[in-house]
Design brief:
This protein is an alpha+beta fold. It is built from nine helices and 17 strands. It has helices at about 5-15, 40-45, 100-110, 145-160, 175-185, 220-235, 255-260, 275-280, 285-305; strands spanning about 25-30, 35, 50, 55-60, 65-70, 75, 80, 90, 95-100, 120-125, 135-140, 140, 165, 190-200, 210, 245-250, 265-270. The protein has a six-stranded mixed β-sheet, sandwiched between helices. It has a five-stranded antiparallel β-sheet with strand order 3-4-5-6-7. Strands 1-2-9-8 form a four-stranded antiparallel β-sheet. α4 (about 145-160) packs across α9 (about 285-305). The longest helix has 23 residues, at about 285-305. The radius of gyration is 20 Å and the shape is globular. The N and C termini lie far apart (about 40 Å). Bound molecules: zinc ion (ZN).
């Protein structure tokens, strides 16, 4: 059954969407954390909800979220994103979620409107590393080279879509992280995408992950951008997309923390993984991957352009 059908099913048969006036978010202390009853949040925000044995599905107008009892993994439109604390279905059958996770990760996806909405006209694409900084290297494959190949493709596609695009480096040059981030101010850019390849001691590690920086004033918009980019980028794997989904993650990487706009660092594959490494050397694959990443940027761009509270940066 399609996700859409599941959501329709929920609308028809589940107990959500009962809009209760004056609904309260009760705080339940639990092991030093502030926990919220999920049922309160559902009423308060007027979400659609479908409770299963150990799983719950929530839907707002723009996104659908799945949570699992005892797990920190939240799926947003089937794309993985980690919570700080596990959600729990208690013995009495009531679901609780940490207040911080609810407000910083769940609500932004399920509420109807964005906080930061500014139309995206200008994009900075950062090809990670360069010059004497090779990034990850395995079997002659250099991360800096792959990053630039992808960044150039991405630039071409986005320009064709009418966006103004600039690269933080156009050749094999070394740039500091601050120079890269500051390009946003120079170009008066609306978003920044930093392109990287991963590496890990575990040679089996494979797939894509998208990082946004917590604690900046663009945290929510960056999280949405990271989600949109990863969701679309994974489509390049077709049926196998779930296997390559390493999730939307938080990290204070300097280039995305310092950028004066919503910013995402995308790890596109593992140089240390034989399969990923082979794909990185395949021009047709890079073309397809750049198309998929561009689709994600455009999806975010379109939702931003239609927002009502735009211009507030
Ligand atoms: Zn890197």
């Amino acid at each position: 059954m399609s996700k859409f059908a599941v959501i329709i099913g929920c609308v028809l048969f589940c107990t959500g969407s009962l809009h209760a006036l004056n609904a309260q978010l009760r705080v339940e202390p639990g092991e030093g954390k502030r926990l919220i009853f999920l049922e309160d949040a559902v009423r308060f925000y007027d979400w659609t909800v479908c409770y299963h044995a150990g799983r719950v599905e929530l839907a707002g107008r723009r996104h659908a979220i799945e949570l699992e009892s005892g797990s920190r993994v939240m799926l947003v439109d089937r794309v993985r994103m980690d919570l700080q604390e596990p959600v729990l279905r208690r013995m009495d059958g009531r679901w609780v979620i940490s207040e911080a996770d609810l407000h910083r990760r769940v609500v932004p996806f399920l509420r109807e409107h964005f906080v930061f909405r500014t139309a995206v006209r200008s994009v900075v694409i950062d090809a990670g590393h360069g010059g004497s900084d090779f990034g990850a290297v395995r079997d002659g494959v250099q991360e800096k080279t792959v990053n630039l190949l992808l960044a150039e493709r991405l630039m071409r596609i986005l320009k064709e879509e009418g966006l103004k695009v600039s690269l933080t480096r156009t050749g094999d040059e070394k740039r500091t992280l601050d120079q890269r981030a500051d390009e946003v101010r120079v170009e008066n850019a609306d978003i920044l995408i930093s392109i990287h390849q991963n590496a890990a001691p575990n040679l089996q590690a494979t797939g894509m992950e998208a990082y946004y920086a917590p604690g900046t004033r663009f945290e929510e918009a960056s999280m949405e951008l990271a989600h949109a980019v990863l969701q679309h980028a994974l489509k390049v794997f077709g049926e196998d997309a779930r296997k390559f989904d390493r999730g939307v993650r938080q990290a204070g990487f300097r280039v995305i923390r310092r950028a004066d706009c919503p910013a995402v660092l995308l790890e596109c594959g593992f140089v240390s993984n034989a399969g990923d490494r082979q794909r990185m050397q395949d021009e047709a694959w890079l073309d397809a991957q750049a198309e998929a990443i561009a689709d994600g940027i455009l999806a975010y761009t379109e939702s931003a352009g239609s927002g009502t509270a735009g211009g507030d940066r």
